[in-house]
Amino acid sequence: MAAIKLENISKIFPRRPLKIKRQYTTLKETLLNFNWLRNRGEVRYVAALKDINLIVEKGESIGIIGMNGSGKSTLLKLIAGIQHPTSGKVYIKGRVASLIGVGVGFHPGFTGRENIFINGIILGLSKKEIKRKFDDIVRFAELEDYIDEPIRIYSDGMFMRLGFSIATNVDPDILLIDEILAVGDEYFKHKCAEKIAEFRKQGKTMVIASHNLGAIKRWCDRTIWLDGGIMRETGIPGEVVKHYRNAIAEKEGKLPLVAAER
Amino acid sequence: MFSNIKELYRCRVLIISLVLREVKLRYQGSVLGFFWTFLSPFLLMCVYTVVFSVFLRINIENYPVFLFCGLLPWAWFSTSILDGADSIIRGGELITRVLFPPQVLPTVTVFSNLINFVLSLPLLFIFFLLFKVKIGISLIALPVIMIVQAVFTMGVVLMVSALNVHFRDVQHILGNLIIMWFFATPIIYPSASIPEIFRFIIYVNPMGTLIKAYQDILFYRHFPNWVLLGIAFCSGVVVFFFGNLIFNRYREFFPEEV
After folding, report:
1. The model's pTM
2. Of B25, B98, B252, Cβ closest to residue A123
3. Contact A25/B167, CB-based, under 8 Å?
4. Local structure of residue A256 (DSSP, 8 states)
């Protein structure tokens, strides 16, 4: 049974005409601009994703690679249900937790304890579930001594640890990870890696978007290379990563790596 | 409309926690705490009392108390509207990074301001004691009026919060509109002093009926005009309905436009 199924997904963002310098339309502009009906045609569109078809089986972990602006984050947001595709359909089976939302709703003035509750509820946990998991969350984040301090005194690392710890304790069926592992010290990175390995063992489905190609190779069963919103290649991580590296080398004007290694 | 309400009901724990956080936040680190809620209507009251009772010499008995009966519910309404207008934009990350029903945000604004209103009621009653104004049995109608106001306010806030994501100047327009609305509502003057031919102004304005109802039950100690209150309720429901329509029309685009 597929955990995620994407059918002919396209996502198109409108890009506002250049002559309007301001970023947002104002009501006054709309009202005063009598030819606004005609102006509509001038809005240009940018396709962030074009005709993506993807089936992720339950328990599979998928890596998404690609350059900045290739549509990785948009794809994750579509799977998470935060954004909706312009055309096509998204089918999801199971509870989705995303590490896109790490630390969302944290308020610096409140204690770690209060923030765990708010953030947990925002991520879809019930109060009872949070109470049950509370100790685990604190232990994993290693914040026992600071949990009743306002989080404005936390270091960036402590902040991220807490966020990560809550998000992974949502106990998802599908876990979406967006370049999160770049933060934290080596020690915590290893801990996260362990957690991810544990998720894999438990047969959870994962979608990981990352620039860390080593991590992609290590953790994923299959890798997708997005290029300008198009699925350029999909296959075994090692292969796809190699081709991706070659393409980048080519772009840099160097010889492809394979050739250079000779 | 019903799907929105159902979704709100499903998120009630979330809403309650966010409302409590909002209320706590307002008073955290401030010395006067929740007296601030009371302080700005209080200052307004002082100003209007000086202007109307001393300078213009309008003779209303216990004018400060009369003012308060209108100013406090108006503060609930106007702060909800002004805070609510950019509630979705302020929500930021909640909208763009997690799956989050956006109507929660304007709802939280309305309810945290409702809590402030309720908290300021005891102080109002202290004022009643100070001026030796009696409190009548009509007080029991208070929750009814508050429900009508909540429905109407929710409708307006849903509407403006959604529009403000798309048209960022809505909140500036509102700032001006609210001032005009304030003077079109019988808060600083009794509705009876409006010439007969202009009286319709308060009847087409649900807030006019509502403020009048608050003054009736608190200050004049008689029950409100139920027919007018019923009409206000119906128009509140209509506004709520349209608020939902507009909200649903735009909500899909919030994550991209915030």
Report:
1. 0.85
2. B98
3. yes
4. P
